[in-house]
Structures are given as C-alpha cells and as structure tokens.
Specification:
With 137 residues, this protein is mainly α. Helices cover 39% and strands 9% of the residues. A hairpin with a 5-residue loop joins strand 3 and strand 4.
C-alpha cells in the first residue's frame, strides 16, 4: 500500500511541470481576446435611440480582414489611430455616442456601424446591405 502511494506521488510530482507548462502556454495564447465567433451588437449608452440588435459574424470577418480594418483607438486630439496588435479593444460606443462631438455619420454606435459595415458591403457584396442580414427578427 505504501509503495503504491509513494509511486503515485512520484508520478504526480513528475507530471506537474508538464501540466503547468501547458497551462502557461494556454494563458499566453489566450492573452489577446479575439472576440466571439458571433457577436450581438446593441447600443447601451444611447437608450433614447435604441437600434435593433445586430448579429455580427465576427469569426467570419476575422478570416478575411485584418483587425485594423474595423478596430481603432483615438489620439488625444480625438483623431482615429489605427489598431496595433495587442491593443485593448474598447466598445465602439465608448466614443461613438451622442455625448461625444463627432460628425453625424459617426455620432452614434448605430451611425458608425452603418457607415463602416454598409460602406464595405456596398463595395464587396451589395446583397449584405439589406437590414434583415444583420438585424434578425
């Protein structure tokens, strides 16, 4: 019985480095959140202008586009600053809302999303500009 216990503890101790290495690798791989496969986009800052939720196939877009195509931050002066790998991605509406002073086409989450998404879709696949494509019933 003691021999089995000692052997079991020995095997467990030998396996610890293997499992901790795997956890460390998984943690490093997961440090950059790539977002979900499908996102539901909904404004929460501008409840006076509630847009219907939009279903966004994020993973499908990731396979075709670079992150900087859609994601960005801003400079101290409020100008668009291209996305850099590893940058924290804020919610779009943290800047694109009625409280920020922006041009009309960017003044709300809804307007910014329509400007970006519909602009790209008009060029690449006009059938995707229809409301029901993103705004499911």
């Amino acid at each position: 019985m003691r021999i089995a216990l000692v052997c079991g503890m020995f095997v467990a101790l030998c396996c610890i480095p293997f499992f901790t290495d795997r956890v460390a690798i998984a943690d490093n791989v997961g440090n950059v959140d790539k977002g979900g496969a499908v996102l539901v986009l909904q404004s929460t800052i501008d409840p006076a202008d509630p847009a219907k939720p939009a279903t966004f196939p994020h993973e499908a877009h990731q396979g075709r586009l670079e992150c900087k195509t859609c994601h960005h931050s801003r400079t101290a002066e409020g100008k668009r600053l291209s996305y850099a790998e590893g940058q924290k991605i804020e919610k779009c509406e943290s800047c694109h809302n009625s409280k920020m002073e922006m041009p009309e086409k960017l003044s709300s989450f809804k307007n910014a999303a329509h400007t970006l998404c519909q602009g790209c879709h008009r060029k690449n696949n006009p059938d995707l500009v229809k409301c029901a494509v993103c705004h499911k019933k």
